[in-house]
Amino acid sequence: MSLSVQGLTIDIGGRRVVDGVSFTVPDGARVGLIGESGSGKSLTALAILGLLPDGATVGGRILWDDRDLRDLDDRTLARIRGREIGMVFQEPQTALNPVRRVGRQMTESLRIHTGMSRADAASRAIELAERMALPDPARIVRRYPHQLSGGQRQRVALAAALSCAPRLIIADEPTTALDVTVQAGILTLLRDLVEDEGRGLLFITHDLAVLSLVATRGVVLHRGRVVEDAPVQALLTAPASEITRGLLRDARATSWSPQTQTPSETPQGEEQR
């Protein structure tokens, strides 16, 4: 078992925003944290990697291979970020450095953790761009984030998270700002990458239809607490809590149906966006 969150609590400004959250992400599993805005799902993800804002107080245990991440010093935790646990943030426009070429950003973590040379990193960036189905990889790695479409920027962020081959990827609503067609392509790519390579995935979303495309198990949060933890298929067909039933109604109201097959992707069309 890779990640085990046990009784996690988070207090910010004297207010408890996450209250006793527990779940596991075994090696190779695809688990989703789902809930409405303010449910505590993103804060839970940030707590795992020690990225909460100053002043936040954390309780409970966050076990990674039986080591409590809360007990590690900053230097040790920094070695785990990127190398063992990769993170894909919600908005690549702000996550990526606007004054650095995207190829360099794809391999920055790799150079830090492995000491890879600049020349080898440049070659690796092209390989990662190909893997992300980005058009004309040798050219695109020399571009800056503002020269790419939103979907392409998210692929760059995903490549950066995967560059060190971490065992677990945490993806915090990585497709929220994208239109439905591009969103579907990113989700398909993410699911296939973690599934084909046996990586674990912790996927954060507010959309049950999206969750059904990438995860096999869902943990439903409401006001900082777990209200349901079940296979995604059970959440879709027999939700046990009113909160989950509300998420299902919302999913059915969108242009995607949770029961439909994953849409195919057309990277060439994305390039034109």
- Name the poorly predicted regions: 260-273
Mean pLDDT score, rounded?
88
Could you name the CATH topology of the largest domain? Answer: Rossmann fold
Q: What topology, given as strand order, has the largest sheet?
A: 6-7-8-3-9-10
| Helix count from the secondary structure assignment | 12
Strand content: 15-25%
Relative helix content: 40-55%
Question: Can you name the CATH architecture of the largest domain?
Answer: 3-Layer(aba) Sandwich
User: First CA to last CA: what distance?
Assistant: 41 Å
Q: Any idea what the CATH superfamily of the largest domain is called?
A: P-loop containing nucleotide triphosphate hydrolases
From N to C, what is the helix and strand string? EEEHEEHEHHHHHEHEHEEHHH
Q: Give the structural class.
A: alpha/beta
Tally of discrete structural domains? 2
For the largest beta-sheet, the strand count, sense and barrel status come to: 6 strands, mixed
Keywords: ATP-binding, Cell membrane, Membrane, Nucleotide-binding, Transport
Membrane topology: Peripheral membrane protein
Domain ABC transporter: 3-248
Pfam family, one: ABC_tran
